[in-house]
Amino acid sequence: MSHAATHDHHDDHHGAPKSFFQRWCMSTNHKDIGTLYLVFALTMFFIGGSFAMVIRAELFKPGLQLVQPYFFNQMTTLHALVMIFGAIMPAFVGLGNWMIPLMVGAPDMALPRMNNLSFWIMPFAFVLLLSTLFLPGGGPAGGWTMYPPLSLQSSSLAYVVFAVHLMGISSIMGAINIIATILNMRAPGMDLLKMPVFVWSWLITAFLLIAVMPVLAGAVTMLLTDKYFGTNFFNPGGGGDPVLYQHIFWFFGHPEVYIMILPAFGIISEVIPTFARKPIFGYKAMVFAIASIAFLSFIVWAHHMFAVGLPMGAEIFFMYATMLIAVPTGVKVFNWVSTMWGGSMTFETPMLFAIAFVILFTIGGFSGLMLALVPADFQYHDTYFVVAHFHYVLVTGALFAIISATYYWLPKWCGHMYSEFWGKMHFWNSVIWVNVLFFPQHFLGLAGMPRRIPDYNVAFANFNMISSIGGFLFGASQLIFLGVLIHAIWFSKNKATDRVWEGAKGLEWTVPSPAPFHTFDVPPVIRDEDLAHGHVND
Amino acid sequence: MTSGSIRRSFTAAATLAAALFGSAASADPSPYQLNMQPGGSTWSHVPYELNNWSFGVCVVIGVLVFGAMFIAMFRFRKSRGAVAEKWSHNTKLEIVWTTIPVIILITLAYFATGGITSWADTTGSQMTVKVTGYQWKWRYDYVDYLGKPISKVGFMSKLDTQSDQTRQLGSGMDPYAVKSGNENTYLLDVDKPLIVPVDTKIRFVITGADVIHSWWVPALGWKLDAIPGIVNAAWTNIKEPGIYRGQCAELCGQDHGFMPIVVVAKSKPDFAKWLADEQAKANPPAAAPAPAAASTAAAPKTAQTAPVADKPSTAKQG
């Protein structure tokens, strides 16, 4: 297994192939593929972000100033698809690729060639998706949820469906690889209940991916045959049911939401103990909470559909099930706070992002609880309140966790420290402007502004302008992030130590910085005190 | 439980919230409006009060959790010489913070369940209006009133001309100039509003003709999707005469943002008079109700006709 890599490796530091094509396109190395995923995700983050800038610019004041409504709808649709499937998910897969083998003491991923394939599918999927912008008829404009019958009116449907198929194949292969790695490749002595919480969160996430990506593939395939092959799954004119699509889509969609947040929980559970210099509070409770959230994610999908006219019993069931999620999520938040309590804290950039995550993700959780209450949801549904809610959990939740992880592990990846000053500049700008951007959207939704509209009544003007200003500055702040990364990778003279952070524990900190091309060719000897959580009984 | 008991138990919080956020008694959105409006129907206080209560609960929990966090960040910093402790467990504490949220959730769920039950009960309605969503306008058909069927009273309702001209890209017209009386009605006015009586339990049967729309007037307290092939039912009982505005709330194509809803509630005698006039106009010489959709420029749209328009349908209870 450890010889799956095809090249020789007599010299750990220079085991990588010299030719660019050989190294990056033919790679079977988990670190290089992890880097590819992360670079891809960052690129998509800026592309999806530029779509968001178009949206916020058009919404800057009432009246249409910049784009036609149909193009506006393309922007909202593509912003979501690119950010979800192109930025957040590949970033987590990249982090998993880089860190899981290092964290469990494995020489590489279990299936290195499949790892290469699962990455290289992604660029093609997104070329297919984004090329629709340049085709007659334009890109998809029916929302990322692709509800029929509206999505069947789109001339780019086939492109989107095939792109989704490719992303799904890539995700499933990635998930299989992660499960196989975690279950088979752990170093002797790395028991399941000694694994870092990040590894646990990815193990559970990978099962969610395998369970739901085929469901999405099925749903979009039915759209395809409805449009081009005369079937009537969702076409009421032929006896189909548009609501059936929504059930299938959200049976995928809700676990998908947790696919985008569970690895974030894992990251935060690594970062906070490191900078609090204190073991994670309630390790088993943390793992169990992730598992219960994953289970509950399969029985709450119809809370996205409270306004479609479900039977009363269904609304009540899905409301109760949804509210239950607050319990394990609350346990996680309480445990993070308890981890900090009694610690010895320092506030480097990864910790700042992790703390912002805990507060702002919890605010997103609060609005989630409010949205779960069916009568209140009759008002909130499809308004800016929902937009504010899911951006709090996805931007200040998932994205902040990814940024935190990047600062946390970057010295291990590139061997140099990033600039702490500019990291903190990035943090404070991000955390201020992201709130200016999204907090007023709660008010807009409560006042009655529907989502996905390109223009609005003048009563909504003030908060939209504030939100847009926050949006532009939050977008601009991410250029600082890019600068910090470029500086750290190519220009920083500040060598990173192996351990990097004083309080860091876990196998990834026992290898040199930068991590050599091949690590753990010989399984490491696991000593419990090296691990973030080595005490089985806790 | 009845909506009355919800009202009683929520009164205190509602008063508090009104004091905090300023009165949002107007049915139209207002600049810098911070909270949901209490609405103008007999049911609309339910979401409003649930919103205020659940928000209050979140604020209290937030203050406690974030407060503890900030205390920790202040007290347990290395720069103040804090030395990390070793514990990572406290079973008692863990039981407490699992149990308390469960109790809070059960309480909220209890009130919310009462709200759903009262919302879903469309029995005993005195009037029925059929609402059909089109790309991008609404159609209203009056089905019955006080037990008597109404024939041929129905019309299309689309964005008013002034808003429609102003909203064109590069129109050079000022959205602030679109007014009806004192209020700005940009994108919130229609050529022909839905006229209904007050103090009447009105049952809406809602469907879509082409794609999915969602019929939402915030003052009535709910929205409900207008789905082709399905007829949804909901009810309202408006307390005061007035103009209640809303918008389509489900993405339905390029002009999704430009299909507002206006409900004009009249006193019962005024409504009876209006209805009699409409019936007189409609019935002897059958008028053609469908106006041309002049403003809706061609979208990438495959023609889909209304498959359900006049079929007998099974309305859902909720």
Features of this protein?
heterodimer, A: 538 residues, mainly alpha, 16 helices, disordered N terminus, B: 318 residues, alpha+beta, six-stranded mixed beta sheet, five-stranded mixed beta sheet, 5 helices, disordered C terminus
What's the gist of this structure?
With 538 residues, chain A is mainly alpha-helical. Chain A has helices at residues 20-25, 30-58, 69-104, 112-131, 157-184, 197-228, 242-259, 262-276, 283-296, 312-324, 326-340, 349-372, 374-380, 384-414, 420-447, 461-491.
- How many DSSP helices of chain A? 16
- Main beta sheet of chain B: strand number and arrangement? 6 strands, mixed
Task: Give the % helix of chain A.
Answer: 55-70%
Query: What is the radius of gyration of chain B?
Result: 25 Å
Mean of residue pLDDT of chain B? 84
Helical stretch count of chain B?
A: 5
Number of strands of chain A: 0
Query: Shape of chain A, please?
Result: globular
Structural shape of chain B: elongated
Task: Report what the structure shows.
The complex is a heterodimer of chains A (538) and B (318). Chain A contains 16 helices and no strands. Chain A is mainly α and 538 residues long. Chain A is globular and about 65 Å long. Chain B is 32% helix and 21% strand. Chain B has helices spanning 3-21, 45-75, 91-120, 161-166, 268-282; strands spanning 127-134, 137-145, 148-149, 154-157, 179-180, 183-184, 194-197, 202-208, 213-217, 222-226, 232-236, 242-248, 260-266. In chain B, helix 1 packs across helix 2 (45-75) and helix 2 (45-75) runs antiparallel to helix 3 (91-120). At the A-B interface, helix 3, helix 10, helix 11, helix 12 and helix 13 of A face helix 2, helix 3, strand 10 and strand 12 of B.
